[in-house]
Amino acid sequence: MRFTSSFHALVLFLVVALLASCQKDAIDTTGSVAISFTPVINADVPDSYYCSVHVAETYPNTPPLARKYVADFATQIDGTVRVTFDHLNPGDYIFTYYKNRQLVPHSVQVASQKTTTFTF
């Protein structure tokens, strides 16, 4: 009888150990935006060296969610720059950049598990 209870305890332990080690893969529900735009950098406006993405609900009252240095990106023959913002939750955002001294905002949408492309 002692052998049977030890065997059952071992089987129970193995089942619990196997179940504990099995984890469902987390599904990434974030998305990305790839944006092509034509910035005009002005040395008198330090912020003109950056482009940003903001949560639409709170724009312009909160800091940007992400900010990137425009000069880090290669300029295409037509003068456009392409930037990608990854790992954004699905929803509405405002993309901003400068054309000389003017801040230019554009509405962009992020879809789950997709890269959405915009050209401004």
Automatic annotation (TrEMBL):
Keywords tagged on the record: Signal
**What superkingdom does the record give?**
Bacteria
Could you say which residues form the signal peptide?
Answer: 1-26
Report the protein name in the record: Uncharacterized protein
Lineage from the top down?
Bacteria, Pseudomonadati, Bacteroidota, Cytophagia, Cytophagales
